[in-house]
Amino acid sequence: MQSDEHTRLSLVLGLAGWVAGLACYVLIEAWQNAWLPDHLLVFASTACLAGMAMFLALTGPAPAGRVMPLAVGAGLVLGGAELWGALRFQNAEAYMAMVYPLLFGALAWLIATGFAAAHLTGQGGWRDYPALFSQSWRVVVNFVVSLVFVGLFWGLLGLSHLLLDIVGLDLMRLLTYFEVLPWVLSGTVLGLAMARVHASAEYISPYLVLRLLRMLSPIVLAVIAVFLVMLPVRGWDGLMQGFSPAATLMAFAAAGVTLVTVAVERSEFDEVKTPWMRSVTQALALTIPGLSALALWAVMLRVWQYSWTPQRLLAVTMACVLLVYGLSYLASVMIQRAWMARIRQANIWMALLVLAVSLAWFTPLFQPERISAQGQLSIAQNGGAADQIDLRELTKSWGNPGAQALSDIQAARPDLAEAIDLARQGRSKPAVDPATRAQRFVEVLPIYPSGRLDPADLSEIRPYLITKWLAACERTIAAGPGCALFVTQDGATGPRRAILFTRSGTNIVEAIHLERRAGKLGTAGATFSLDGPMRLDDRTLDALHRGEAKLVSREIQALDVGGRSIFAHN
Prior knowledge:
single chain, four-stranded antiparallel beta sheet, alpha+beta, 21 helices, five-stranded mixed beta sheet, 4 domains, 570 residues
């Protein structure tokens, strides 16, 4: 780039950065001082930040005059989408506290910026995959480099302040005398850094990052292969341990999508050439559907147990998108001929799908708060206990749909009036003394085949576990409470060894091994099934309450109940 062109670009982006910094300061002041209704502030903040960021990202590779209409249009569309979503809430701050406004807003901006860059610089328009691939990665790298430079700039100012402070000069006080100054200074430095990065495109390239990422493919594939081999050997119960396994599976599926995309590159000329790396890429592509399906199943287990929440809807959405990615890659690899070219074309359509899904979350087509609120209302209408209903979330986090569902629950379930009032006050149930809770637990806990339990026996068990088990007892089934204790070895002062069954959710029963040590009962390890994965349901509790459980003599002592054989393992 010629010197005068670089100077002109520096002036344009420096001024744009100055305006962006000033806008950030004004918007923060507007939020703090309520200059506008907060819903309008959501629109203004999103439109301004998205538009300015796109202008900074694309001006340089393309003339400012061509970038400006696209940046303004993208800002208005994204701002309108965020406003549409915020209208579900009386308080826009509660809306912005949700995860998805920022996540899907950022995804929509990144994809839209990539397509805009391809439209401005590619020979084939917005569907020009080489331009879409290279420019999307360049946008990310350029922003990272520029933001690092801004951090270094402020680090230098901090050191300068320390040096000048020795001679009695307070540099930071001078720079912060006007509150707006740090903002406009940061914006200007960011704009100038972006100008230098654009001018040095031949030196600051994403291709080094892409080549380094390729080196991770064999490692990721090896880890996934070990996981998939060991999963049926070790059992599927780990997938039932909440959101964490699903998040890990989705992270590896997303890593697989990224590494496959990096391997197929932007064109046939740039794709991986070595046979073994092509095989690694194929194998990695084939694992993505399995990981995504397992992640989806793990999340759905929580949904079936506890119903929908916006977070679970978000997880299901991400898992479904990754599953579609994986299926498109699977089809491309199975066809074999020109499979890398097919993946490149699939990536274009998948980017459009992700953009559409991201925007749909802000529209009436998909309202996570309403879906979640209706799920909680259904639980209440079916007789669910107060601890099974997310009353606090309905009150504080799910906007207008949550408030409406809470009113419907109050009308349908007068017995929940006290719990609803406490939730509206931001309080949980009044504190209960641990001894009282333990007393209540032993009163409602059925013990089979016979025996007695004293609250003092439970003094070494953590109070939160007693609370959890007591709540399980209240999730009754037709045959009795949602809990039961089967004594496998009795003692003079009470059960010496026992298995505690608790109903943690609808048709989900957990089994915990208890053992007496030093006169007190405590948890003593896991329980295992001799005849398949350890998945117990309401039939197990039903069989216990009907007296159908019995100890059997094998090489190890086991409990036969509900057609299952269970043993305790220390």
